[in-house]
Amino acid sequence: MEQVTREDLNRINALAKSTLTAEKVYTFTMRLCDNEVDRDFERFESQALDTLAELFLGKSGLFDHQWSAVGQTARIYRTEVVEEPGRVTAAGDAYRWLKGWAYLLRTEKNEDLIAEIEGGIKKEVSVGCRMKKSVCSICGAEDSCAHIPGQQYEGKLCFRELREPEDAYEWSFVAVPAQREAGVVKRFGPEQDEMARLKRQAELGKRYLGQLRKEVVRLAMLSDEDLDGAILEKAAQRMEEGELLELKRVFEKRTARRFPAAVQLRPAPQKRGEDESVFLV
Q1: Contact at 8 Å (CB) between 60 and 172?
Q2: CA distances from 101 to 53, 58, 115, 116, 132 (A)
Q3: CA-to-CA separations, 141 to 51, 204, 211, in angstroms, rounded
Q4: How far, in whole angstroms, is CA 38 from its chain's centroid?
Q5: 122-160 pLDDT tens trace
Q6: pLDDT of residue 277
Q7: Containing domain of residue 228, as a range?
Q8: Mean per-residue pLDDT, 96-117
Q9: Is 129 found in the same domain as 37?
Q10: Count of CB atoms situated within 10 Å of the CB of 77
């Protein structure tokens, strides 16, 4: 339990409807989130923590991110971004984390929760927020790219960096947070989720057509070496999937006729008297 100071009471009473005394409240501190790469290979940009510190003031504490008034138990009345000198993140910058002070009422209903907090049972927390950008640490692309989070590219770890916080919803007690020391639930909102999904689909379609055009040109050149590859490439760029698939079918047949598959001959029979034991298994 944190010692309730006069400054704490002033901050708490700024959120409360009626005046509360030190005897009526229970306070505790939390490591809400940090700028380290988490289990999902995502992390908050260092500067984003400063904005999140402002956004989380006054936000409610829940259980397992269940958005229900029934689960509201505590509220954040103070935040601060803490820096740990000498500690460096996997991304190579100074480690920072967001500290939150929360209070709940000393009621009969909350006695068990207070006991679980004091006993270290209710310990891990996770935050729910909306971020504007998710950026690849390798190429800087937003939303989607060819790099896979968690993979190494020329010795550099790929992860998604969450930037520009737009809103903070709540924080929750959880069993297994994404962040190893705090925990975080990244929420991008329905509009951002749908836009990201459409962008991914468009990118996949673009890649598919690109590979299909290359395959048509390759097969055409194999079927007739006198064809002009540059002209074929320009023509293929103006074609859509149906036209490309039909040309692919035609050029595959022509290529097969020009380069028929070689017939695999049976090995000559062994002569009598040769040692056949070397073929036994």
Answers
A1: no
A2: 11, 10, 18, 17, 26
A3: 22, 15, 22
A4: 9
A5: 888 888 899 999 999 999 998 789 999 999 999 999 999
A6: 43
A7: 196-258
A8: 91
A9: yes
A10: 22
Domain count, the chain: 2
Looking at the structure, do residues 163 and 201 belong to the same domain, yes or no?
no
Q: How many CB atoms lie within 10 A of CB 73?
A: 19
Confirm whether 94 is domain-assigned: yes
> Please, which residues have CB within 8 angstroms of residue 166's CB and are 6 or more apart in sequence?
130, 131, 132, 189
Q: Domain for residue 12, yes or no?
A: yes
Number of neighbours of residue 244 by Cβ within 10 angstroms: 16
- In this structure, the dihedral spanned by the alpha carbons of residues 44, 45, 47 and 49, taken in order and rounded to 10 degrees, is 10
Give the whole-angstrom CA distance, residue 48 versus residue 45. 5
What is the C-alpha separation between 24 and 103, in angstroms, rounded?
A: 10
Residues 55 and 134 placed together within one structural domain of the fold: yes
Taking the chain, what is the end-to-end CA distance rounded to the nearest angstrom? 74
Going by pLDDT thresholds of 50, 70 and 90, the confidence category of residue 89 is very high
Listed in sequence order, the residues at least 6 apart from 119 whose beta carbon sits closer than 8 Å to its beta carbon are: none
Residues 6+ apart with CB under 8 A from 21: 9
